[in-house]
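user: Please review this fold.
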Amino acid sequence: MARIADQKTDFPQWYLDVIAQADLAEHAEVRGCIIFKPYGYALWEAIQHDLNQRIKDLGVSNVYFPMLIPESILMKEKDHIEGFAPECAVVTHGGGKELTEKLYIRPTSETIIYSTFAKWVQSYRDLPMKINQWANVVRWEMRTRPFLRTLEFLWQEGHTMHATKEEADQMVMAALQMYTDFDRDMLAIPVLKGKKPEHEKFAGALYTMTTEALARDGKAIQAGTSHNLGQGFSEAYDVKYLSKEGKQERPFMTSWGLSTRIIGTLIVVHGDEKGLRIPPAMAPIQVVIVPIYKSDDEKEAVLKAAHEIEKSLDDVRVKVDLRDEKSPGFKFAEWEVKGVPIRIELGPKDLAQNQVTMVRRDTSEKSAVPLAQVNGMSVRVLLETIQQNMLAQAEEFLKTHTHVAMTKEELTAIIESDAGGMAWAAWDGEKETAMKVQNELKASIRLLGDPAEAHGKTDPVSGKPATEWALYAKAY
């Protein structure tokens, strides 16, 4: 297989090499778009399968809305369109003619959904209304990178309506916790969660909550967001309902989403010098069996044993690599770069000793295991051990790369160090101060912590009294 760039010295190229060699995706004809190849799309299917049930457990139903939004609909919420205008793609012609009204390819769906909500809700009995759609969106990004930032990407977007702000707050936090649990349970990724500063919130929202993961190059990466939209969209799209008291009221809206960016997050959080490392819970292939033989006699005996092992691994996603045109060494390297959690090597010498050679992708540990002990139960136990170990490794990395900076010099040293990482620091709450850090250090405020942590402290950049406890980092 082709060489993968060194992760420590050229992380961006390492990332692209892993995507190519793991056969996840390739560039499309349109700049900034990608083609999801079968193995890459299988990751998204695993995400959809698990997350879709979690969404339904919140009482949310799936729907689908058109991807084309009339300009008149999009323009009703001024803050929203101002925030997304630079990223919008616009359709001006259709059927060989210039359209009388421009159509925007959705950058997100609040506008078209909430204009429809105005028709769907009349009474307090219609609330809460909770819907979700799995869809594609287009945002005209200038700098793109597969999965992490593309012109078109896939996602789910939840949208709900509630009678009170308190109920909307509860929905925002329920969605945020859902993402946090999903990241841990499925992706073995620990995240920090909190509120975005006012200048970083979703366009048109009251506030935005976020989950932030940490890549192995020390950069933060947003893993999912949840927004309380207040009543702004209700007013813009004239959404109202009759309360129990017979009064016309405006509902409170929420929206929340997670995209195929999470696949990029998986790569940069868990990947190593050999390529991907996929947590067993979401691995398309959890166990690969690589038969090793030279003669036809050896082949018959080895393949018979390999298929017997395959049958014994009930409730495990297993594949036997039957390719004769590839050497065992090539197969080992390929399945390592694809991040398959367990590799079972089986040759004539193994059969003679009634054993297999089992290799863990998370630790590269290789061990001889008696054939009698290779079964569905033992392998499922090992897969769970690998899942928990990968989470523990990621937690340790997050812990050791999250610091506190009391001075501007400390903040600079943390952000600009080769190891990278995140730094908690006191913040005066001024956008000007945050932008100064962003301009000088290329670091942004990822989220806000407990304001009590900032009590009595001074902003290390401005020298003013602090009002917030902020987490700074360079980010994707």
Summary: The mean pLDDT is 96. The radius of gyration is 25 Å. The first strand starts at residue 25 and ends at 27. The chain has three domains: 11-270, 287-382, 402-473.
